[in-house]
Amino acid sequence: MAEDNAAAQEQQARFIIQKIYTKDISFETPNSPAIFREEWKPTLDLQLGTEHEKIDEENHEIVLVVTVTARVNDKVAFIAEVKQAGIFTLAGYSDDEMGPLIGSYCPNTVFPFAREVVADMVTKGGFPQLVLAPVNFDAVYKRKLDSMAQMREQSAGNPEQTH
User: Fold this and answer.
1) Do residues 127 and 78 make contact, with C-beta atoms less than 8 angstroms apart?
2) CA–CA separation, 133 vs 141, rounded Å?
3) What's the pLDDT tens digit per position in 14-32?
4) Where are the domains of the chain?
5) Burial of 129 (0-12, 13-18, 19+ CB in 10 A)
6) Out of the domains of life, which is the source (predicted)?
7) Are residues 117 and 22 in contact, defined by beta-carbon separation less than 8 angstroms?
């Protein structure tokens, strides 16, 4: 009987990719054309973030925000930002399962599309090809959870003082 319940739960759980799309793109070269005369030895800063919106009971929009800033000799060569989104049907999962799906699995699903958009923008912007390395979204999600837990502990340990 317990096996039947577990099998029924597994059958009810659904993960469906409804749509993958680019929600927003931005590319800036604030120091062009002078930056093209510099020796190309950039330092890169990669920032990742996620946004989540529950569309209805089963459908969720997950947006991966990727921002890459390249600097040469302390001058900004380019800033490339893409908001790559997906609409996912996530049904039949427990609250404990939803966190990793929304915080790790879905961003991991849309990341290759974001990487392609960034590479295309950078090349069309006149710079050498940039291929972003794979990202361990499980580790990113765990760091976020750890950070949130630490903030909760700090706020619990430091009650607000009234004057």
Assistant:
1) yes
2) 17
3) 999 999 999 999 999 999 9
4) 13-152
5) exposed
6) Bacteria
7) yes
